[in-house]
Amino acid sequence: MNENNSNEAPVDEQVSRHRKRKHDKRGETMDSFLKTSGLRRRVLVVDDEIINRMLIGNMLEAEYDVVYAENGREAVERLENTKTGFSLILLDLMMPEMNGFEVLDYAKHSEALKNIPIIVMTSDKDAEVKSIKLGAVDFITKPFHMPEVILARCERVIELSEDKNIIHSAERDPLTGLYAKDFFFEYIKQVEQYNASRQAMDAVVFTIEHFHLINEVYGREKGNDVLRTVAELLVDLFKDSAAFACHAEDDVFYIYCKHRESYDDIVDVCQQSLEEHSRSPKIFVRAGVYPEVDPEVPVETRFERAKVAYTRIRGDYTQKVAFYSSELYEKAIYHERLIADIEDAIENGDIKVYYQPKYAIRGKTPRLRSAEALVRWFHPELGMISPGDFIPLFESNGLIQKVDNYIWEQAAAQIKAWRETYGVTVPVSVNVSRIDIYDPDIESFLANLLTENDLDPSDLMIEITESAYAENADRLIEVINNLRGRGFLIEMDDFGSGYSSLNMLATIPIDVLKMDMAFIRNMESDDKSLRLVRLVIDIAKFLEVSVVAEGVETKSQLDLLKGMGCDYIQGFYFSGPVPPEKFAAFIEADLKVKQEERGKTHDN
Asked: Residues with Cβ < 8 Å from 574, sequence gap 6 or more?
């Protein structure tokens, strides 16, 4: 190229950009790293004329490691067989054996070559359009002039290619090939920004519940294989719909797609594939959907709402898809308020411990034997909050441990207070949730409560639910054995409402079996419930443990249970849960009965 035929402005502009790049922070960082590490970028020069190869090599060799090829076939062999990658290819078009156009076409379909930028070297202006269509990124016109401009073009092309590759690597999740979460969100924003005719879209969250079991049983590589399979399935299932897919977290996928009325079929296909891979009945695919999203709602918030929908069915194996609604949103806000306020509630005493009495009914007169500690929350602004609202919520996020520890402390102190006031000990049962079982300090925490309040282990009884056995049987058995070794008594709560395995009763050492109140409620009207009550009492006798019937409300229920040999009852027939100052009346009444019985014995 001579100066008379060149376009001065573009050349000056390129040289200026080249000099400015030297001061660019990223360029300085990359260049300084390469220099201090002793590494150099590699450039392949492909030309059948030796003089052209030497001219280009002399221009580039101060900055790059230059490798040469005499024709297209030799170039392809070098590119495919070398272990060290190339940053740039300078390619002549007119060569024997395999010309430049054939190399460009080959590179488009080669994994090894398709990401390497190619600058075409030619004196044929008419070849530019064809070269661009085949993938060339720039041109150097023969004969070669202005080495500084050629070097600037090479550096600029390499920089743009490296930036593109960096962006591409951040764009995709390396495991599944789906979009990475940050890019996924940004992509949706860009599409919506430039797309005026918005159609109704859904934000969908697919979750694999208990995915960790695959990693634990079969290994992480098997787990990765399952994730890749699910990703491929989702892409295939949504291929006919306007949709974007994202691998958001370990076991969570996001889909942004054209609105549809049902996702059951997609969940079913994923579930079937999951079962083939894992062979585990405890692993499930679930979906939360924010349907027909409000475009004014931020993209990230749309998927948070889909997550909120999913949390409603987490652990519920009868439902596979949940849809977000305004009611669900209000409930989510309510739950967030409870989560935010629980620590203040404990500190300020808004969490109260109530006590429900348990009576022994084997004798002539029912006698107070113990109590169960039950939690009540009196919120200063929201009023009385049902345990059914906050206990499952806190069990799902782990906050139940704070509540339980507080209840245990209050119950232990109350046992001591009643003993100091009345001279008798009223044992109290406290609930231990499945979350508490994972606490490595649970045994020392409970033991310290006994020491601080001068109690015997049998004064603070431990209630566990059978669902905790299904969650982690080995850990539960270990904790129970250790607690019983310290002298604590163990009650199995709500027996018959959950896992109810005879193997569980054979492996877990318990002292008391508590029947689920649903059996008691229906036993006078439903013969099956009545037979189940008899069966539970017979099991307790066989195991030589006491049995407690919860939810007793009438005299006829009491008499029926007493006739079957039930040991204790708990329920509204005697009293609902009451604060400790009202519970004192039961202690006083029982002391009075005891005194009267002593008086009769003395008279006789």
From this structure: 357, 359, 366, 552, 586
Spatial distance between the Cα atoms of 286 and 307, rounded to a whole number of angstroms: 11
Q: Under DSSP, is residue 507 helix (H, G, I), strand (E, B) or coil?
A: helix
Structural domains counted in the chain = 3
Shared domain check, 288 and 200: yes
What is the Cα–Cα distance from 128 to 50, expressed in whole angstroms? 23
Q: Using an 8 Å Cβ cutoff, are 547 and 496 in contact?
A: no
Q: What six digits make up the tokens of 499?
A: 């896992």
**401 DSSP assignment:** H
pLDDT tens digits, 44-63 = 999 999 988 898 888 898 88
Choose among 457, 433, 434: nearest CA to 446. 457
- Verify that 159 and 202 share a domain, yes or no: no
Residue with tokens 């409402």: 497
Q: Which domain holds residue 517?
A: 350-573
The 3-state DSSP class for residue 117 equals: coil
Using the structure block, give the residue that is written with the tokens 């030796």: 50
Bridge pairing between strands 42-46 and 65-69: parallel
Which residues share a beta bridge with 512?
A: 491, 546
Q: 357: domain CATH number?
A: 3.20.20.450
CA distance 587 to 430: 19
Question: Could you please report the per-residue DSSP string of 515-567?
Answer: E-HHHHHHTTT-HHHHHHHHHHHHHHHHHT-EEEEE---SHHHHHHHHHHT--
> pTM for the full model?
0.61
The predicted-structure confidence for 168-210, as pLDDT tens digits, reads as follows: 656 888 888 898 888 888 888 877 766 655 678 999 999 988 8
Distances, alpha carbon 149 to alpha carbons 10, 24, 46, 86, 141, in Å: 10, 18, 19, 21, 11
